[in-house]
Amino acid sequence: MRTILVPTDFSEPSKNAAHYALNMAIGLKADLHLCNAFTVPAESPVMSGVTWSLYEYPDLKEEINKDLKKFANTLEKKETVLAADAPTLFHPTISYSCEREDLVSFIHTTAIATDAILIVMGMTGGGKLNQLLFGSNSLKMIDKTQHPLLIIPHHHRYQAIRKIAFATDLSTEDKKTAQALSKLAEYFDAELLISHVIDFNEKLDNDAYEHKKDLFIQDIPGKTSYLPIEEKGIDSGLDVLRNKDLDLLVMGHQHKVFFDRLTEGSHSIRQARKLHLPLMVIPQGVPLLF
User: Fold this and answer.
1) Residues 242-277: pLDDT tens digits?
2) Would the pLDDT of 137 be above 60?
3) Residues 6+ apart with CB under 8 A from 151
4) Angle between the 57-85 and 12-28 helix axes, to the nearest 10 degrees?
5) What are the phi and psi torsion angles at 116 (to 5°)?
6) Higher pLDDT, 41 or 127
7) Which tens digit of pLDDT belongs to each residue from 208-218?
8) What's residue 25's pLDDT?
9) For the chain, what are the domain ranges?
């Protein structure tokens, strides 16, 4: 059974991401798997509200599994409430695992073991990505993930997905992604906006641009429309998309400039504060299994 994977450290951002992922799992008819990767440094850390030392490792793992079970039960109760209003909804199975391992490695191995179609992670308020997604681990996840990665802002609560924007350079690789995203949109009866920032050369040769655009959008099924953005740079383009009443923004991994800016100093804070909607990162060259 295909699965949505949710790494959690029991923080509020990661819990919020898990609640979002539960709704995605229902819509995509997928199961949900919670995972926690932990370390036990020589100096006692504080994890899940409990201080632990190195020699207490077995107890630590047992305690984390208890926390995972408790959180899984909370999500199951939430799913029961949702099902009461709509009995025909899909009922995902919720499982969990934890291991003393590097976070990125554990996510990768768990994603393979659970046939994950999507990884969902949280983002704190104020523009700072939480410890699951910021710093070296965030860069590794964005750079090394072999599965779609969905980033949920801390204060963003799930709402019906009606409009999905895919930021693209109209490449052949992106067209394959767009076709897969049309299947994702179909699950939620959503509109897929193909969004492209028109560059200077395309403005000079409008006929070539129109031909390229027409080739890209043909054969993409479902409720699909094209949204050209005549702005300078990604910042301005994001501002335009941000005002389009979107429910989800999707970008390919090759748009590295955007992610560099998310992880650079004060500019990252300004940029992340603008991003009040979920962002899905699609790894390049990996088939999407929506």
Assistant:
1) 777 899 989 876 655 555 555 554 333 344 455 678
2) no
3) 121, 122, 123, 129, 133, 278, 279, 280, 281
4) 50
5) -70, 135
6) 41
7) 888 899 999 99
8) 97
9) 3-153, 163-276
- Give dist(CA 277, CA 268) in Å, integer: 16
Residue type at 184? L
Give the dihedral of Cα atoms 170, 171, 176, 181; nearest 10 deg: -30
Contact indicator for 68, 96 with CB cutoff of 8 Å: yes
- Give the residue with greater pLDDT, 205 vs 218: 218
Length of the chain: 290
Q: Tell me: domain 163-276, CATH 3.60.15.10, correct?
A: no
State the amino acid at position 9 in one-letter form.
D
Tokens of 266: 């004060």
154, two tokens: 């801390």
Whether residue 199 has pLDDT greater than 90: no
Range ranked top by mean pLDDT from 36-50, 202-216, 231-245: 202-216
Match domain 3-153 to its CATH number in 1.10.10.1100, 3.40.50.620, 3.40.50.300, 3.40.640.10. 3.40.50.620
Domains 3-153 and 163-276 share a fold: yes
